[in-house]
Write a structure and sequence with these properties.
about 375 residues; alpha/beta; Quinone Oxidoreductase, Chain A, domain 1; Rossmann fold; 2 domains; seven-stranded mixed beta sheet; 11 helices; 18 strands; about 25% strand; GroES-like_sf; oxidoreductase; metal-binding; EC 1.2.1.66; S-(hydroxymethyl)glutathione dehydrogenase [NAD(P)+] activity
Length: about 375
């Protein structure tokens, strides 16, 4: 809670050891500095990237760290020079905030910003260790401090649980379809991996006007969920060659757009070769640093043509796109209610990771 204008005492999920359950601990936060904001978290999505970070997939130098990067909350304090938000604003937190000055921002490509803005590291454990928040924000907690430009204002009436998911998984999926791949009306799409991000790609493809949307997964339950979000067909990859099945569903040609939302090299290769001539394959799933495509047949890839792309955060601009997605939710075009499988407490966050691994949830959301 806030303590006048001084140090904040907060409570959150802190990962101290690789692969071990995160502990729920109190920690302190110094007041926000210039250009920064203290945010009281209302809700946070439990994303697979947090699980990967906790398991050391991205290395171990950042331990101990504060989990969470899909958050919605209320601005509780602001530092000097903050003008884009005021105390009391309801905001979605973005883990990327373009700086406006790097080589990409200056050439009109802020979605590729090479110097994304973050707050100074102002959070410390009870034993004096400086905490690294996941992706620069940290949202499995009662309070966090971020750069003010990581705060995107939304209407007070919008539900925090659903809005938190726009901050990463939903934006990543919808943006991959609309911006990275540029799905066109009347086209065909295959989405490999029908979890929270994959189903957001399905929704994005539907918004773009795709008329054939094929969900691919190993889990029958996830395939049923994909139908609810707009998949016109589903393929269970455990029952045969998914590439052959996708081609059967597309007149023998393959799809115009494929998406890999798993982070698995074998699945990536399937996504590449399920395309029609000159189709676009977009990699959305985060593979580990040691993953590689060791046997990609380059001649076959060349003959197929098209494009292989990587989607970072759906190539979004949070200040532009978060309000758009929030409006689509209000208009019934984005079914975020269905993405929220379960609302949980902070103490249940570790079990939420296990439920994710078992395929029982699209998104658990921590509510404060």
């Amino acid at each position: 809670m806030a303590d006048g204008g001084g140090t904040i005492t907060a409570r959150g999920a802190i990962a101290r050891e690789v692969g071990k359950p995160a502990g729920i601990e109190e920690f302190t936060i110094d007041p926000p500095g210039p250009g920064e904001a203290l945010v009281k978290i209302l809700a946070s999505g439990v994303c697979h990237t947090d699980l990967s970070a906790k398991n050391g997939v991205f290395g171990t130098d950042y331990f101990p760290f504060l989990l969470g990067h899909e958050g919605c909350g209320i601005v509780e304090r602001v530092g000097e020079g903050v003008s884009n938000v005021v105390v009391g604003d309801k905001v979605i937190l973005a883990w990327r905030a373009p700086c406006g000055n790097c080589r990409f921002c200056l050439t009109g490509k802020p979605n590729l910003c090479a110097a994304s803005l973050n707050a100074e590291q102002r959070m410390r454990t009870h034993d004096g260790i400086t905490l690294q928040p996941v992706l620069g924000i940290g949202t499995f907690c009662t309070h966090t401090v971020v750069h003010s430009r990581q705060c995107v204002k939304i209407a007070d009436s919008l539900p925090a649980e659903q809005m938190s998911l726009i901050g990463c998984g939903v934006m990543t999926g919808v943006g991959a379809a609309l911006y990275t791949a540029g799905v066109e009306a009347g086209s065909s799409v295959a989405v490999f991996g029908c979890g929270g991000v994959g189903d957001s790609i399905v929704m994005g493809a539907k918004l773009a006007g795709a008329t054939t949307i094929i969900g691919v997964d190993l889990d029958p339950r996830k395939l049923e969920w994909a139908k609810g979000f707009g998949a016109t067909h589903t393929v269970n990859a455990s029952e045969g060659d998914p590439v052959a099945r996708i081609k059967e569903l597309t007149g023998g040609f393959g799809v115009n757009y494929s998406f890999e939302a798993v982070g698995n090299p074998k699945v990536t290769e399937q996504a590449i070769f399920c395309r029609d001539l000159a189709g676009t394959c977009t990699i959305v799933g985060v593979a580990g640093p040691t993953s590689s495509l060791e046997s990609l047949p380059l001649g076959k890839f060349f003959d197929l043509g098209g494009a292989l792309r990587v989607s970072w955060y759906g190539d979004c601009l949070p200040t532009r796109d978060f309000p758009i997605l929030a409006a689509w939710y209000q208009q019934g075009k984005l079914d975020l209610d269905a993405v929220v499988t379960k609302v949980i407490s902070l103490e249940e966050s570790d079990e939420a990771f296990h439920a994710m691994e078992r395929g029982e949830t699209l998104r658990s959301v921590i509510a404060f």
